[in-house]
Inverse folding.
C-alpha cells in the first residue's frame, strides 16, 4: 500500500466522496485542519466526563440502541457503502452484520472484562484487600482505512466506547461518507448524550496527523504499515500510546489430506472477494504436491464463474483506491518476469477500475507478488513437498496478520506453528467473525489487538487499589517501626512459602 501521503495539495478545504465505479462525486466534506481537530478533541474531552461516568449497563444500552438504529437504516447504509466503496450491496450487508456483532459483544462484555475485580492479597499482605479496577483512557483518536469502512474502524470505535472513552474518528478519505454515517446514527440513537461522545474529523493524511498530535489519550490506527510507522513516530513525541492494525500477506496451507473442494472454494473467495482488498485476505497458497494439480484446477474452475462489476449480481466491485490498480498490475508483471506463470488471467485482467481474478503459480518467493501486500484479486500458489516446507515459507514474511490451514487431521497442529495473530482451520477469515476472538498481527502487521477481551483492555487503564483492613501488631513491613522480630518472622514466612521446593 502506498497512500501514506499527507494529502493532495489541491484539496485544501473540501474532500470529495467519489463512486469508484463511475468516478461520480457523491458528496463533499469539509476538511478539518489542526484547529478543527483540536476543537473536536476538546469537545470529546468534555463529553468524556459524562460518558466515562456512566455505568457499564448504561453504556451497553446506548451502544445496543445504536446497533438497532443501524439495523433500521441498513438499506440506506448499505447503499451508501456500495456507492462510496464499490462493494456489492450483499457484501456491504455482511460487513455491517459483522460490525453489529462486535458492537453487541463489546457492549455486553465490557462489564465482565473491565468491571472491578477482587485480587488475592497474598500471605504477606493478608491484612489488605486488593482490587483491580479499570478506568477509561479519556479520548481515543481512531484513524481508519477504506477497505472495510464500517467493520474495521468499528473494531476500535465500539470497544473504546464500551470501555468508557469518547472517540474522535478520522475516516479514510475513500470512506468519509460512510464514516460520518456511523457517527450520525450514534447521535440519532442517543439524543440525550452530549455532543462529542463519538464524532468525526474529515480529511486526508494531514487530518489524521493532526489527530495524532492532538490531546488524545490513545491512537487506534488501521491502515498500511508505512502509515502505521509514521503514526507511531509522531505519537512518540507525546508518548501517546498506539494500537496499530496494519497490512498482511496472509498464507493458506493446503495439506495433502485436505478437502480440496472446500479449500479451493475458500481460497477462491478469500483471494478475490472485496476485490482482494482485505487485510487478512488470501494472498499466498502453499499446497502439498499430492493434491496440487487437483487444487489448482478446482480454483480455476470456480474463478471462471467470478466476474467483478458494479451491478447487483457482481461477485465483487471495482478497486476502491485508484492508485492501487497500478500496484496490482506491477505485482502481476513482476511475478511473470521472475519465472512465474499465470494459469488464470494475467496483466490483461486489469481493466480499471475493475480487476478480474488472477492465479499465479511458481512465482519466485523473493518477488513482490509474494513478499509485499498486493491488495488485489490475485493469488500466488506454490507447490511444496511437505507441510514443514509450507509452514517455513508461510512464516518467511515480514507480515504476520493471519492465515488458514486446510487439513482433515492436523489442522490445529499446523496452525500452532504459524507466526501470526490468527488462523482459521478448514475455513478462511472465520476468526474475524467471532467477536470474542482478538484480532491483530505480529511484525509489520502491527501492535496490539482489537476485538474480544484484549480489544477492550486496549482502551482501559488498570488501576490497582490496596486497602489496609487492619494493622497486624509487630508486622509493619512498610514502616520504619519495623523491628528485628518483624524481620525474623518475615524470614520464617518466606522460607516456608518459597524455600521448600527441591
Ligand atoms: P493508509 O495507511 O493509506 O491510510 C489509512 C488511514 O491513515 C487513512 O485514514 C489516511 O488518511 C490516514 N493517514 C495517512 N497518512 C497519515 C499520517 N501521516 N498520519 C495520520 N494518518 C494518516 O491505508 P489504506 O489504504 O486506507 O488502507 C489499506 C491498508 O490497511 C492495507 O495495508 C490493509 O492491509 C490495512 N488494513 C489492516 C487491517 C487490520 O486490521 N490489520 C484492516 C483493514 C485494513
Amino acid at each position: 500500500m502506498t497512500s501514506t501521503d499527507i494529502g493532495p495539495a489541491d484539496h485544501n478545504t473540501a474532500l470529495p466522496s467519489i463512486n469508484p465505479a463511475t468516478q461520480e462525486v457523491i458528496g463533499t466534506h469539509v476538511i478539518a485542519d489542526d484547529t478543527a481537530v483540536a476543537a473536536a478533541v476538546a469537545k470529546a474531552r468534555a463529553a468524556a466526563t459524562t460518558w466515562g461516568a456512566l455505568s457499564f449497563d448504561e453504556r451497553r444500552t446506548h451502544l445496543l440502541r445504536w446497533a438497532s438504529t443501524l439495523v433500521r437504516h441498513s438499506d440506506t447504509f448499505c447503499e451508501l457503502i456500495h456507492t462510496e466503496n464499490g462493494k456489492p450491496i450483499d457484501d456491504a450487508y455482511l460487513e455491517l452484520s459483522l460490525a453489529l456483532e462486535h458492537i453487541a459483544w463489546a457492549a455486553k462484555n465490557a462489564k465482565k472484562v473491565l468491571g472491578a475485580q477482587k485480587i488475592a492479597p497474598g500471605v504477606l499482605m493478608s491484612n489488605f484487600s486488593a482490587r483491580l479496577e479499570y478506568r477509561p483512557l479519556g479520548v481515543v483518536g481512531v484513524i481508519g482505512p477504506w477497505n472495510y469502512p464500517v467493520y474495521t474502524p468499528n473494531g476500535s470505535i465500539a470497544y473504546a466506547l464500551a470501555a468508557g472513552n469518547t472517540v474522535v474518528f478520522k475516516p479514510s478519505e475513500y470512506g468519509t461518507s460512510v464514516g460520518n454515517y456511523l457517527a450520525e446514527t450514534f447521535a440519532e440513537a442517543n439524543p440525550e448524550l452530549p455532543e462529542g461522545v463519538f464524532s468525526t474529523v474529515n480529511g486526508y493524511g494531514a487530518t489524521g496527523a493532526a489527530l495524532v498530535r492532538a490531546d488524545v489519550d490513545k491512537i487506534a490506527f488501521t491502515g498500511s504499515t508505512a502509515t502505521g510507522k509514521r503514526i507511531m513516530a509522531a505519537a512518540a513525541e507525546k508518548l501517546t500510546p498506539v494500537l496499530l492494525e496494519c497490512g498482511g500477506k496472509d498464507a493458506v496451507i493446503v495439506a495433502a489430506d485436505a478437502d480440496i473442494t472446500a479449500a479451493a472454494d475458500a481460497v477462491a473467495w478469500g483471494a478475490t472477494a472485496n476485490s482482494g482488498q482485505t487485510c487478512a485476505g488470501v494472498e499466498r497458497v502453499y499446497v502439498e504436491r499430492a493434491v496440487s494439480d487437483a487444487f489448482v484446477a478446482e480454483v480455476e474452475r470456480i474463478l471462471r464463474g467470478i466476474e467483478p462489476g458494479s451491478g447487483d449480481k457482481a461477485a465483487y466491485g471495482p478497486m476502491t483506491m485508484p492508485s492501487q490498480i497500478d500496484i496490482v498490475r506491477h505485482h502481476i508483471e513482476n511475478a511473470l518476469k521472475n519465472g512465474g506463470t499465470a494459469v488464470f488471467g494475467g496483466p490483461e485482467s486489469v481493466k480499471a477500475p475493475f480487476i478480474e481474478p488472477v492465479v499465479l503459480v511458481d512465482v519466485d518467493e523473493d518477488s513482490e507478488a509474494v513478499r509485499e501486500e498486493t491488495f488485489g484479486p490475485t493469488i500466488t500458489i506454490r507447490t511444496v513437498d511437505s507441510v514443514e516446507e509450507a509452514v517455513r515459507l508461510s512464516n518467511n514474511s515480514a507480515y504476520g496478520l493471519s492465515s488458514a490451514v486446510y487439513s482433515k487431521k492436523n489442522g490445529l497442529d499446523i496452525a500452532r506453528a504459524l507466526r501470526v495473530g490468527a488462523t482459521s482451520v478448514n475455513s478462511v477469515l472465520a476468526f474475524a467473525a467471532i467477536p470474542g476472538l482478538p484480532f491483530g498481527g505480529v511484525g509489520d502487521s502491527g501492535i496490539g489487538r482489537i476485538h474480544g477481551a484484549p480489544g477492550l483492555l486496549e482502551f482501559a487503564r488498570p488501576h490497582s487499589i490496596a486497602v489496609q483492613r487492619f494493622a497486624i501488631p509487630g508486622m509493619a513491613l512498610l514502616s520504619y517501626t519495623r523491628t528485628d522480630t518483624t524481620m525474623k518472622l518475615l524470614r520464617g514466612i518466606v522460607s516456608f512459602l518459597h524455600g521448600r521446593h527441591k
Remarks:
- The chain has two domains: 14-246+451-461, 251-427.
- Residues 89-114 form the longest helix (26 residues).
- Residues 1, 3-4, 6, 143-148, 152, 170, 172-173, 204-205, 208-209, 212, 222-224, 227, 230-231, 245-248, 279, 321, 373, 401, 446 surround nicotinamide-adenine-dinucleotide (CB under 6 Å).
- Confidence is low (pLDDT under 50) at residues 1-6.
